[in-house]
Every structure is written in C-alpha cells, then in structure tokens.
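FORM 7B: Structural annotation worksheet

SECTION A. Query
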Amino acid sequence: MTDIVLDINNLVVALGKQPGASRIIDDVSLRVAERETLCLVGESGSGKSVTSLTVMGLLQKGSLIPTGGSVKLVGEELLTASDRRLRQLRATRMAMIFQEPMTALNPVVPVGRQIDEVLRVHTDLDARARRRKILAMMEHVRLPDVERIFASYPHRLSGGQRQRIMIAMALVLEPKLLIADEPTTALDVTTQKQILTLIRDLQRDHGTAVLFITHDMGVVAEIADRVAVMRHGRLVESGPLDGILRNPLMEYTRNLLASVPSLVPRAPRQETNEPVVLEANELCKIYRERSFFGKAREVPAAKNVTLTLRKGRTLGIVGESGSGKSTVARCIVRLIDPTSGGVRLVGREISELSRRLLQPHRKKIQIIFQDPYRSLNPRVTIGESIAEGPINYGMPRKEALSKARELLELVHLPVDAISRYPHQFSGGQRQRIAIARALALDPEVLVADEAVSALDVSVQAQVLDLLDEIQKRLGIGLLFITHDLRVAAQICDDVVVMQHGRVVEQGPAAEVLTHPKEAYTRALLDAAPGRGWDFANFRPVAEAAE
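SECTION B. Predicted structure
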C-alpha cells in the first residue's frame, strides 16, 4: 500500500479561541499519498488556502486558530509541534509554492542567494557544494543560462522563470510534501503547461506528494489523480479525477464545472456598421536600456501593431507573457507614450497630444486592471472612489455620488456599498467596483487588462456576463486583453494574436480560434489546460464528437 504523506483528520480552524467562534475550516479530512496529486478546488473564500497554511504552520497568530482535529506529516503531528520544529520541517519535509512569486521572493536579493539560504539553514554543505547543488536544481527545473539567472534579481526574470525559482527553492531539499497554492493562475497557457509538466516530472523523479490548490478546472483535468471540492470551509465532495469530472454528485461541483468557459467560440454576433471608436496604426513601443559601459540596447515591446475596434464590439488581444499585449493597451490609453505610430480615439488622433491637451479625451477611454485591490485606494470609500473621476471633470459632488449609486446597481452591488472600503469586499466584488469606476465617465472605449484572470471560474463567469450586459446596454467598445483562450472564445467578436510584440494573426474569433492559420496560434490552443474535456456536459470532447 502506498505510504500516506499528509493525513488531515476532522480539522477545525476558528476565528479565535472563544466558544462559538466562527469556523473557517469545519471538520475537513484529506489524505495525500506518495507520488499522488490531490487537487483542492473551490471558489475564493472556500478555505483552500487556510487549509494549506494550517499544514505549513503559517496561520496568523492569535487570529486563525486550529481548535480541533489532527494534521500529520508522515505520521508526525503538526498541530502540536513547536515553532522550532515547524521551521525544521519546512523545506526539509514539506514545502510550499505561492501564487505570486514576485511577492514571495525578496526583491533586493539575487535569486541564487535566496535558494542558498535554504541550504545554509538546513544543511552542513560548504559554499561551493551549495552552489553546485543550486545550479543543478535550476537546470532540473529547466531554467536557461543558470549562471546568469543565479545572479539575477527577481524583477529581471519573467513570471514563468520566477515561478521556476520558487519550485527550485521548494524542492532543493527533496521534501516529502509539496503544496502548490494557485501556482499557475497568472501565467499564460504555454508557461502554465510547462510548469504543470515540470511538477509532474519532479513528482515522478522524487516521489513527492502534491497538494495542488486551484480554482481552474482545466488545470485539475491535466494534473490531478484525485479531487477534493471545498465550499464555505467544508469538504463537499471528493474522489478520483475521472469520477468527479464525469459524474459529480453535488450541485455545487456541477455548477463549478459548468462555469468553465468553453474553448468553442460563442456564436458570432452580427456584423454592424457602427462607427469605429478606436484605431491603432503601425503602433510601436521601443524601450532603450543603457548598460554600465554606456552602450544602449533597444528592446521592442510592440512593433507595427494595427487594430480596429467598432462601437459595441469586443476585440481581444491574446498571447504569451511578454508578447506585448499590455504594452499595446497602455500605449492606447496613453499611460505610456508610444515610440511611433498613431492612436485614433473616436476619430481624434491622440498619440502625440501633450498631457494637458490629452486630458479632455481621457474620459472617453477607461481601463480596468487585473488586480482591483491594488488599483482601488484602500483609505477611500467605494463611493468616493467611483465619484472621483466625475468630480475631477466638474460634476457637483452630490450628483457624482448619486451617479455612483446608480453604477453600483448597474454592476449588481447593493447601494449601501457606497460607504464601505475595498477590504470589505471579495475579489469579484472589487472587480465589479473597478468596472463601475471605469464607467463613471461614460467612456466610449473600455480596456480590460487581464480583468478576470485572478478570479475563480464562477465569479469569472459572472463578471464576463456583466461586461456583456453593460456592453449591450451602453454600446461601449471593449478591448479585452487576456492570456486565457477560453475567456477570449466566450467574450470576443474579433481576436488579435500577438507574439514578441508583433501581430501574427487576427480576424473573427470564431475563425481564428477554430481554424488558426499560424503555428503559434495552434500552439497556444494546444497548450490550453483541459482542452480534452467538455466540462459543462461532464464528458471528454472525443466522446462528445462521436
């Protein structure tokens, strides 16, 4: 019988020690065996991450407290272990990969030294032996030019490379248990596929047990041996992967699966003769880096990008990280200045306007960012945040707050939310607030830069439906930047595919995503996780085609 690495029995985590305290985790039992991957899925707030932090002994002291049950790692009880013992176990017998490596890595220390710290604390190896071991592990996780990367700071690496550094740090001492908390959420499909393959290969080579936390059912279909579904701190359903995907017993699980966007594009909307609201013509953005020796190096982030967006239509820009999607969006919104080329907004050329002359045109184009928590001021109420734009353009404060209430209703939030602060809302609710704020100036064009990539599938579906509803009611042109081809298939009328700053293919979404002409587009589609499953109908795509 395969050895059990992680054994959680009837775990209870409460908000404080007082009798009757709210239970964040309520009677959860899980087991992960050697060489097995258990995927823990559920919406935001379901208790997935709290469960993993309990195992690692990283719960906030005095706030979240385990009040019942047992957590054993290879037979050793963790809930009663001392802080010193938990520090010894971290990295040596259990390790964790966090969702956002840029916040988990120290920005002022080279990544090689950060991995070296693990070895210095937990081994007796000398500096030369530690370096050899680190470089070997960096090669093992398929990082290129490991000597250069060893000496690099986190901001000099791509998102996928930073995540590989986190994996190397987690596995350098070959722990028995690896906890991966949403490690691929913010990665594009090709990098995501590489990371998932890497975790599988490392698991096979080292016999590691993997607890993989995710809200992406496509990822679950690619990597899981077994699946456990959580909701409101409770375990709803668990079983082998095939059983959960083919025959989910609980309504909540069925709804989660049904919320996964399909790779089959939605039925195309009828072409209209609505006016063009946004054009980019031969748009270029070149960054110039000057080295220590004074030599300048040009890095083209966008090269000769041309696109057109009509009123009431949705144009998607898709591609890998570093393809230039966000650069193009920021040039169009004039958050950064293009090096050359033109941007026409509702018939007016804005690419060369000074900041002062640009000001009247800014209200016509607004942007929704990926992380609403970072784009909303935590010290300002929701009402003040939404009303800020109209007030800056001369609207009386009372009228602006009244409009804020109307916009909250439009995005399906209660009117009393106007006096609350961003931290009092969930991620999906904060994104709705960001949408309301973007609509406050009655824009002609809305730019959504990875606006749903960090949301779980059910909330993602709600936000996509909301954007579609708003577009139909207000006739806004939507420029939608995403690395998720499933989302692009369900919301976009037309698609632009970018690679290395260039447009490699564009056309109607139904045509580009169904019959791609370019090898790069086909590679993107082939890398989409779970593309072999028809989640909404609980069967493989191959069976649906028969």
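SECTION C. Observations
The mean pLDDT is 89. The longest helix spans residues 189-206.

SECTION D. Sign-off
Analyst initials: ____
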